[in-house]
Structure formats: structure tokens, C-alpha cells
Amino acid sequence: MFQTLRTSLLSSARCWDTDSERSYQSLFDRLDTNKDGKVDVAELRAGLKAMGIFRHGAAQKIVSSGDQNKDGYLDFNEFTKYLKEHEKKLWLTFKSLDRNNDGRIDATEIQQSLAELGMDVSKVDALKILKSMDIDRTMMVDWNEWRDHFLLCPAHDLEEIIRYWKHSSVLDIGDSLAIPDEFTDEEKNSGVWWKQLVAGAAAGSVSRTGTAPLDRVKVFMQVHSTKAKPISVIGGFRQMIVEGGLASLWRGNGINVLKIAPETAIKFMAYEQYKKLLTSEGKKIEAHKRFMAGSMAGATAQTAIYPMEVLKTRLTLRKTGQYTGMFGCAKTILRKEGVIAFYKGYIPNLLGIIPYAGIDLAVYETLKNAWLAYYAKDTANPGVLVLLGCGTISSTCGQLASYPLALVRTRMQAQASLGGSDQPSMSTLLKNIVAKDGFFGLYRGILPNFMKVIPAVSISYVVYEYMKTGLGI
Questions:
Q1: What pLDDT score was predicted for residue 311?
Q2: Bigger pLDDT: 386 vs 16
Q3: Which candidate among 64, 149, 359, 366 keeps its CA 20 to 30 Å from the CA of 428?
């Protein structure tokens, strides 16, 4: 049904023929449901949804791009100019995919083009992508089919077109171990990249603040809960509220939010440099090199901001009146324990990056491809809800793999503040935990960690979308 409706709406809207003006007018009239001579975001969104090409944020982006007088609407002249400019860009992308210049794109050409962008897709997956655009079922896509498919999609170059098949960077669950997002050359040159980073940082700040009580009870359980003296989630909340009141549930959140911006910026800049080092000039980075670059960028960012991680743990666990604040805490640690204390737990933290990022990406791609294989019929775009679901599950699996290392890291960061003179190494601490609490002792506090995933993902996604709109992305 979607394919038929899309064809009927777009089939007459050919850019380079004598009837183009009349064709655009027909399409405009169909979208202008209230017949006021203008198309707003709501009308365009409804039209996209009716054609089965709805994508979150697409209507807003199209109106923002074509709205020359900034009145929030597209009149017919603005609509026509936007479509003509957009088609020119789509034509260039189509030609870059059409490697044998026969005027058609087949699955092999799609597979080769994606491989050059570091996306290794199977022939089956390439056929699925082709099928989503193949209106006449010839298993080949000509210019008209390509144009019909992307005419009302704001993406135009190849990297932008495949972006919604990739992992979104907005899923901030408070553990910034994932591979950084990538930006096109156009986004870097236009300055859009920093707006995206700002939007991501704002989303992370609100998300972490919203889930801070769960994060604090997680750390509390990691450090204080044992097999002999177990602490439940409710019990942990009760103890913290009795000791410091309701506001104490947000202890350590200030520095947790404060470290987002430098960590994001360092990770992004390091990622770009590592990609250049691992790839020959003029060539696209391969998938395994992208993973290596991302892991090294994460390690670089963690090394730079790690003292803030230690401060966050100490401030999260502090008792009322123990420190005067962030700087007071830093002075106390420096005076009593020396500079080395700011890197306690650094090794398990670094080791946790590889399993987290690797499993996160692997599970994400597996789930997304499985959904496409079993449920997708006329599209290769799973949609926002499916991608968010895949991202939530993959992040959870990544946490499961790296959580024992995260627990050891937190214990090592907190050791001196607990008053004990014994400072065991990572391996000794692991052995002690397993000996006293068994294997499941390595997962103390994981329940509140799981509880915060869905609200953290939801909050960060919503705030990210609002920030992007506010920043004009």
C-alpha cells in the first residue's frame, strides 16, 4: 500500500522534463491538506507517513532547509526550489553508485559502495536495501526509482543516506565507553558537528541527572554490599536518605555532568586523528579499523578525564560534611594519598572499553539485521523505535560483559575513603570478591544499573531531538 501511494504521489514529479512545474504543483497540492497555499511541518509529516517514508525529524529538516523567509512554512516557490536543489544532489549520489554507468544500480554496486565506507554488508542485506527502492521489482534501481525514494528524504549524499542504518550516538546511559559518532566532511566544514556534540552533551546531562539516584545506589551497592551484609535497592535508598536527606541521592552528579563535555570533545578529536593514522590518504576506513580507532579514542578520553571519575566516585560515596565540595575533595585526596590516587582503578577501567564497545556494536548490528530479515518488507530502515530498542539491548549486553571490571574499578577508587590500609591490586581484588561473595558478587549493583538504562536512553533521545531542533540542525 505504501509503495503504491508513494508511486502515485511522486511518479509525476520529474525534475528534468517539460511538465516539471505542473508535476511539482500536483505534489504540493496533495501535501497542502488545508489548502492555504503553504505546507507546514505537520502537513509534511502526515504526507511522509502516508507514503511510508516517514523518518523522525525529516519533515522539520525539509521545512527548515527550504524556508527562505523563515516563516515556518514552505510556499510553492520555496517547495519547488528545495526539490530542484535536492534532486541535483541526489543525481550526483546516484551517479557515484552507478559504477558501470548503465543508468541503473544493482545489489553488487550497493555492496561495493558501502564497503568503501567501512560497512561490510552481505549480498542478502544489499538486496534488502535494493528492494526498498525497487518499485517495478526488476531488482535494479533506475534514476526515477532512486529519486522517488529519496525525494522527500532530507538525506542526499551516500554517507548521509546510510546514516540511519548505523548506531545512534544519543544513547547515553552514563557509561561513555561506546565508539564516538562520525560526521561527514560537509558537517565538519559547516560547523554542524559541534552543534551535534552540544546536543549530545545536553542530552547526556539531563539523562544522567534524571537517573542519578539509581547511579548512586549502584555505586553504594558496589562498594558496601556483600554476601554477609547484602544491600537491596530499596535498602540502599533508605540508608542514603536517612544519612543525608533526599538531596543526597544526587551526590556526585555535578562532576558526572561536568565531565561529559571534555570527554566528548577529546574522544571526537582523538577518533578523527586515529582514523587518519590507520587509513591511507583518500581511502575509506574499514570496519575493523573504525573499531580500533574508536577504542583508542575512548582510552585516550578516559585517560584525560580519569581523575574526574575518581572524584565522582568519592563524592558519590561521601558522608554528610565529609568534603566541602569538588575542589575540597580533590585537595584532600592530593594531600593524604598523592597524585597516584587519581588513577586508582585505571587499568580495569581501560580494559572494560574493549568488551563494552565491541559487544555493544556486535549485538546492535545482529539485532537490527535480524529485525530486517524477519519483519522488514518494503524498507531497509528499521525505524526509530526499533533502533532505540536495539541500542538499549546492545548497551545492556555491553554492560554485562564489562560490569565486573567496572565493579573492581569502583572498589579500587573507593578503597582509601573506606579507611582500610590494605590496597589490593586488581587481580587480588577480583579473587577476594569471588572468594567471599561467589561469582555473582562481581555483579553487585547491576540491578539499579539495568533499571536506569531505559529511562536514560529515553530521556537522552528526547532531549537530543529537542536540542537539535533548537540549534537548527
A1: 92
A2: 386
A3: 359
17: left (phi over 0), alpha (psi -120 to 50) or beta: beta
CB count within 10 Å of CB 172 equals 27
Under DSSP, is residue 423 helix (H, G, I), strand (E, B) or coil? coil
Backbone phi, then psi, for 458, in 5-degree steps? -65, -50
Residues 6+ apart with CB under 8 A from 51: 2, 5, 6, 9, 10, 152
Residue 366, class by beta-carbon neighbours within 10 Å (0-12 exposed, 13-18 middle, 19+ buried)? middle
Contact (Cβ atoms closer than 8 angstroms) between residue 297 and residue 271: yes
- Residue 161 has a pLDDT of 60
pTM of the model: 0.62
CB 23 within 8 A of CB 13: yes
DSSP string, 80-137: HHHHHHHHHHHHHHHHHH-TT-SSEE-HHHHHHHHHHTT----HHHHHHHHHHH-TTS
Rounded to whole angstroms, the Cα distance separating 343 from 365 reads 34
Residue in the structure block whose three cell numbers are 579500587 = 412
Rounding to the nearest 10 degrees, give the CA dihedral for residues 328, 334, 336, 342: 110
Among 424, 410, 348, residue whose Cα is nearest residue 223: 410
